[in-house]
Structure formats: structure tokens, C-alpha cells
Amino acid sequence: MASAHVLDHPLLQHKVSMIRDKNTGTKEFRELVKEIAMLMVYEVTRDMPLKEVEVETPITMARTKVIAGKMVGIVPILRAGLGMVEGVLNLIPGAKVGHIGLYRDPDTFEPVEYYCKLPVDAQERELIVLDPMLATGGSASDAITLIKKRGCSNIKLVNIIASPEGIETVRKAHPDVDVYVAAVDEGLNDHAYIVPGLGDAGDRLFGTK
Fold first, then answer.
1. Could you report the per-residue pLDDT of 164-198, keeping only the tens digit for each?
2. Residue limits of the Phosphoribosyltransferase domain (predicted)?
């Protein structure tokens, strides 16, 4: 079964504290989410394979290592996941970006896909699914299901803040998907918001209510 990894680097914890603060404005919130995503993907990609190459330095030839051609795809879940994309691209500028959007039918409670566009070679890429909050885990689980239906199997989920319930939902539905988070909070309130959380990440990113 896949694991849930809590990334507890001091810089991450510091920046997460700042985005929790209700007084952090939209501009600063957006910049912090970008920085947090960049710090997280640094850890998420720690297991990328390397190959040895030879380069010529100003002094002599050197045997050194580069990433072994492993292709990465980034898939933000609309809309809040968009706030994490730039931070990941800062570290992996060659990554391709897909997008997925879905909502839950109010009558059937089944996920309804309203947008999904992945890189044409997504099946050959390691896909990193992005969403700042993992609350009930329903949307993330459904998004991963839709991605798998398109033939993709190498998937990681990256969330800034998660609830224990959300992690468990994803792990039950997708035991092959590793989950990376910067904080695991107490749980969910009656409105399925993470407590203490940070409120609605999408609204805080884009200045809406």
C-alpha cells in the first residue's frame, strides 16, 4: 500500500503557518502557496532516477549525474490547484501541465467531469496531482480515478494541508498512489472544512468569496 508522507521541513512549516493566518492578504497568500509547492516538489521528486554523464569543466572532464530522462506531468485540480503550478514549474520547467475539473452531482452525488485535458503522452509520465487542501478526499480520489481511466498509472498526490479522513479516503481508493502533505490537521467540521485549516484555498488565492 502506498504511503502518506508528511513533509516537515522548517521552511515549509513556517510558510504553512503564514497561509493559515486569516490576515494574510491575497497577494502574499498566492506567493506563499507557490513557494510551498516548490519546496514540496523538491521532496516529492527525491526518488527520481539518475544516470551518469561526462561533462567538461573549465579544468578537466568529470563524471557526474543528471536526471535519467524521466518525464513529469503536473495536473492541478481546478481551481485551487492552479496556485501550486508555478512553484513546481520553477523547479521542473520541462514538465507538461494538464488540468482536471469535476463537481459532484447534487442528486446522485457521483463525480461529474467538466474538464480534463492531459499531456498527449501522459501515460509515459510521472503525474503529480496538485490541490492545496485534502478535506474529505472525494475530489482528489475522483480526479485520480479519471486520470487512471486515461491509461495513467504513475501518479502522486501533493496537498499542503490534509485531514486524516481525506488521507484515508485516498489510500482506500488508490493504494498505489503516494500522498505528500505539509500538515495533517485535526479533522473536518460539519461543513467539511479542515480544522483548523486555512479556510477556502481557492477564495484566498483568487480574492473571491
1. 999 999 999 999 999 999 999 999 998 889 999 99
2. 6-208
pLDDT tens-digit map of 113-139: 889 999 999 999 999 999 999 999 999
Select which of 57, 105, 108, 190 is catalytic: 108
> Is 46 marked active-site?
no
Q: Where are the alpha helices (DSSP H) in 25-133?
A: 26-44, 82-91
Beta bridge partners of 67: 50
Residue 104 is a catalytic residue: yes
- For residue 203, indicate whether it is catalytic: yes
Distance CA 53, CA 64 (A): 5
What CA–CA distance (Å, rounded) separates 203 from 209? 6
Known binding-site residues for uracil equal 194, 199-201
pTM: predicted TM-score of the whole model, two decimal places = 0.91
Q: Per the annotation, where are the binding residues?
A: 79, 104, 131-139, 194, 199-201
